[in-house]
UniProtKB/TrEMBL annotation:
Annotated gene: LOC108742132
Protein's recorded name: Endocuticle structural glycoprotein ABD-4-like
Any Gene Ontology CC annotation: chitin-based extracellular matrix
Name of one Pfam family that matches: Chitin_bind_4
UniProt KW Signal keyword: yes
Length: 161
Protein backbone atom coordinates (compact mmCIF):
# COMPACT_ATOMS: atom_id res chain seq x y z
CA UNK A 1 0.00 0.00 0.00
CA UNK A 2 1.17 3.48 -0.79
CA UNK A 3 2.43 5.51 2.18
CA UNK A 4 0.23 8.51 1.22
CA UNK A 5 -2.90 6.31 1.22
CA UNK A 6 -2.03 4.91 4.66
CA UNK A 7 -1.41 8.42 5.99
CA UNK A 8 -4.72 9.62 4.55
CA UNK A 9 -6.66 6.71 6.11
CA UNK A 10 -5.02 7.22 9.52
CA UNK A 11 -5.63 10.98 9.53
CA UNK A 12 -9.25 10.51 8.37
CA UNK A 13 -9.88 7.97 11.13
CA UNK A 14 -8.31 10.15 13.79
CA UNK A 15 -10.46 13.12 12.75
CA UNK A 16 -13.63 11.02 12.68
CA UNK A 17 -12.93 9.41 16.04
CA UNK A 18 -12.08 12.71 17.70
CA UNK A 19 -15.34 14.35 16.63
CA UNK A 20 -17.65 15.01 19.54
CA UNK A 21 -21.38 15.59 19.50
CA UNK A 22 -22.15 18.50 21.77
CA UNK A 23 -25.27 18.36 23.89
CA UNK A 24 -26.10 22.00 23.07
CA UNK A 25 -28.25 23.86 20.60
CA UNK A 26 -27.12 27.25 19.37
CA UNK A 27 -30.21 29.36 18.78
CA UNK A 28 -30.09 31.57 15.68
CA UNK A 29 -30.80 35.23 16.11
CA UNK A 30 -34.14 36.18 14.49
CA UNK A 31 -32.87 39.46 13.06
CA UNK A 32 -30.25 37.60 11.04
CA UNK A 33 -33.03 35.91 9.07
CA UNK A 34 -35.47 38.79 8.82
CA UNK A 35 -32.98 41.33 7.56
CA UNK A 36 -33.94 43.61 10.43
CA UNK A 37 -31.53 45.15 12.85
CA UNK A 38 -32.52 45.52 16.47
CA UNK A 39 -29.53 47.71 17.34
CA UNK A 40 -28.60 45.19 19.98
CA UNK A 41 -27.15 42.02 18.53
CA UNK A 42 -26.37 39.57 21.36
CA UNK A 43 -23.89 36.73 20.93
CA UNK A 44 -25.37 33.35 20.06
CA UNK A 45 -26.70 31.73 23.16
CA UNK A 46 -26.00 28.04 23.77
CA UNK A 47 -29.19 26.27 24.83
CA UNK A 48 -28.68 23.01 26.74
CA UNK A 49 -30.65 19.90 25.83
CA UNK A 50 -32.11 18.79 29.15
CA UNK A 51 -33.77 15.58 28.07
CA UNK A 52 -33.64 13.43 24.93
CA UNK A 53 -35.03 9.99 24.18
CA UNK A 54 -35.56 8.11 20.96
CA UNK A 55 -36.79 4.58 20.36
CA UNK A 56 -37.23 2.98 16.93
CA UNK A 57 -38.39 -0.58 16.42
CA UNK A 58 -37.90 -2.85 13.44
CA UNK A 59 -41.63 -2.90 12.69
CA UNK A 60 -41.70 0.86 11.97
CA UNK A 61 -42.93 2.10 15.34
CA UNK A 62 -41.07 4.97 16.91
CA UNK A 63 -41.14 7.39 19.81
CA UNK A 64 -39.01 10.43 20.55
CA UNK A 65 -39.02 13.31 22.96
CA UNK A 66 -36.72 16.15 23.92
CA UNK A 67 -36.68 19.23 26.08
CA UNK A 68 -34.36 22.22 25.88
CA UNK A 69 -33.20 24.72 28.43
CA UNK A 70 -35.18 27.54 26.81
CA UNK A 71 -38.55 25.85 27.37
CA UNK A 72 -39.04 23.93 24.14
CA UNK A 73 -40.60 20.51 24.68
CA UNK A 74 -41.39 18.03 21.87
CA UNK A 75 -42.74 14.48 21.79
CA UNK A 76 -44.08 12.21 19.05
CA UNK A 77 -45.21 8.60 18.72
CA UNK A 78 -45.68 6.88 15.39
CA UNK A 79 -46.67 3.53 14.04
CA UNK A 80 -47.21 1.89 10.68
CA UNK A 81 -50.83 1.63 9.63
CA UNK A 82 -52.06 -0.55 6.78
CA UNK A 83 -55.39 1.26 6.47
CA UNK A 84 -54.41 3.47 3.52
CA UNK A 85 -55.43 2.11 0.06
CA UNK A 86 -51.97 2.86 -1.37
CA UNK A 87 -50.34 0.62 1.25
CA UNK A 88 -48.83 1.09 4.69
CA UNK A 89 -48.48 4.60 6.03
CA UNK A 90 -47.09 6.13 9.20
CA UNK A 91 -49.63 7.48 11.67
CA UNK A 92 -48.21 9.92 14.20
CA UNK A 93 -49.44 11.83 17.18
CA UNK A 94 -47.57 14.16 19.43
CA UNK A 95 -47.16 17.70 20.51
CA UNK A 96 -44.81 20.52 21.27
CA UNK A 97 -44.70 23.61 23.42
CA UNK A 98 -42.51 26.69 23.53
CA UNK A 99 -42.33 30.08 25.16
CA UNK A 100 -43.23 32.91 22.80
CA UNK A 101 -41.56 36.31 22.65
CA UNK A 102 -44.49 37.60 24.74
CA UNK A 103 -43.52 35.26 27.61
CA UNK A 104 -46.55 32.97 27.21
CA UNK A 105 -46.25 29.22 26.76
CA UNK A 106 -47.85 27.95 23.55
CA UNK A 107 -48.79 24.28 23.20
CA UNK A 108 -49.84 22.28 20.16
CA UNK A 109 -50.99 18.67 20.07
CA UNK A 110 -51.49 16.96 16.73
CA UNK A 111 -52.41 13.85 14.84
CA UNK A 112 -51.08 13.06 11.37
CA UNK A 113 -52.68 10.19 9.49
CA UNK A 114 -54.59 9.39 6.30
CA UNK A 115 -56.82 12.40 7.07
CA UNK A 116 -53.87 14.82 7.08
CA UNK A 117 -52.15 16.89 9.77
CA UNK A 118 -54.59 18.10 12.43
CA UNK A 119 -53.15 20.45 15.05
CA UNK A 120 -55.02 21.51 18.18
CA UNK A 121 -54.06 24.47 20.35
CA UNK A 122 -55.82 27.18 22.32
CA UNK A 123 -54.14 29.93 20.27
CA UNK A 124 -54.88 28.46 16.80
CA UNK A 125 -57.62 30.43 15.03
CA UNK A 126 -60.78 28.47 14.26
CA UNK A 127 -63.17 29.11 11.40
CA UNK A 128 -66.49 30.80 12.12
CA UNK A 129 -69.53 28.52 12.50
CA UNK A 130 -71.49 27.58 9.38
CA UNK A 131 -74.46 29.93 8.94
CA UNK A 132 -77.77 28.32 9.95
CA UNK A 133 -79.32 28.51 6.46
CA UNK A 134 -76.33 26.75 4.88
CA UNK A 135 -76.29 24.11 7.64
CA UNK A 136 -80.00 23.38 6.98
CA UNK A 137 -79.33 23.12 3.24
CA UNK A 138 -76.44 20.70 3.81
CA UNK A 139 -78.62 18.59 6.11
CA UNK A 140 -81.43 18.45 3.50
CA UNK A 141 -78.94 17.45 0.80
CA UNK A 142 -77.59 14.67 3.02
CA UNK A 143 -81.13 13.34 3.68
CA UNK A 144 -81.92 12.91 -0.02
CA UNK A 145 -78.97 10.53 -0.39
CA UNK A 146 -78.61 11.10 -4.14
CA UNK A 147 -77.25 14.39 -5.33
CA UNK A 148 -77.03 13.19 -8.95
CA UNK A 149 -73.26 13.65 -9.03
CA UNK A 150 -71.14 10.52 -9.15
CA UNK A 151 -67.94 12.54 -9.48
CA UNK A 152 -67.38 11.69 -13.15
CA UNK A 153 -66.75 14.40 -15.73
CA UNK A 154 -69.22 14.23 -18.61
CA UNK A 155 -68.96 17.14 -21.05
CA UNK A 156 -72.30 18.06 -22.64
CA UNK A 157 -72.65 17.50 -26.37
CA UNK A 158 -73.39 21.15 -27.13
CA UNK A 159 -70.48 22.46 -25.04
CA UNK A 160 -67.53 23.49 -27.19
CA UNK A 161 -65.13 24.19 -24.31
Amino acid sequence: MNFNVILFVISSLSIALSARLENLYVAPHAAAYSGASTGFEPAHQQIPILRYSSDNTEDGNYRYAYETGNGISVQENGHVSGSVPEGPAVVADGGYSYTGSDGQTYSISYTADENGFRPVGAHIPTPPPIPEAIARSLAENAKSGDDGDDGQYRPSVGNRY
